[in-house]
Specification:
Structural class: alpha/beta
Distance between the termini: 43 Å
Number of strands: 9
Strand order of the largest sheet: 1-4-3-2-5-6
Order of helices and strands: EHEHEHEHHHEHEHHHHHEEE
Number of helices: 12
Amino acid sequence: MTTALLRTAEALHARARVGRRAVVMTMGALHEGHATLIRTAREIAGRDGEVVVTVFVNPLQFGEGEDLDRYPRTLDADLKIAEQAGADVVFAPFADEVYPGGEPQVRISAGPMGERLEGASRPGHFDGVLTVVAKLLHLTRPDVALYGQKDAQQLALVRRMVRDLNFGVEIVGVPTVREEDGLALSSRNRYLSAVERRTALALSQALFAGRDRHAAQEALRARAREVPATRARAEALSAIGESRAAADAHAVAKAAPATTSVPADVVAAARLVLEDAARLKPPLEVDYLALVDPSDFTEISDGFTGEAVLAVAARVGTTRLIDNLPLTFGAAS
């Protein structure tokens, strides 16, 4: 198939529509993560539908001192990747098509959720994100729009905006795509030198450590609920091979079995990895590490049950990276 490059909404609207239109919004510099989004969009749209990939570097979401000017612009390569992944159209508008008359005076506010984590580190960022997402949804008129779960807070805010403001579009989240060494795919990875990349691996390693701690705790609690609160329970816990519980199995046996794993322990396991990385050369400089409720991105407390997100952001040299993992606490897990 041949992917059309369109620069105006008028040209996009002139295309005949038969099936569903699925949109993948990007800032260009496409990689395998974007390709996965496009392939998923192709599956959702079907043979009769249409897949539109937007390529627009949005100035509103870059703060002072951030990398707007050096953000990679690789439209020719983006077209090839989009075509290979199954896109029908690449919609790459110029700034005056998206923002006629300059920066908009009326913008979308991300509200309290937009001021947490990423929003606290990058004030105004999510206002800019939601403003351009709203604009592009109007310009492309999709039935469904797909976003990567790597940008978990962005995905949550887009879902909230669509619900709160009654946008007639379905939002689909697509799991994070990782490189073989675990690093989450990002257009900013290309900024990392070889030694910086080794340090950057601590982000995913920290998340995996938190996930493993969570899984071990959940397994312990499940086993603890199955055996009596006696010495037999201590032996059962030890048999699982979870070293921390086994080291003090008798004390664990005397305690009532908990219903969920402890969020603080999950965060502590991840933080140990980040603290080690802070001593590397070059060091990892952590912005935040948090275990949050994806509905509003507030930190969860002991006793929480349901879906959660373990999120991290850090700098290596001049490059800022983010990553996250979904976790489930309690009976649902």
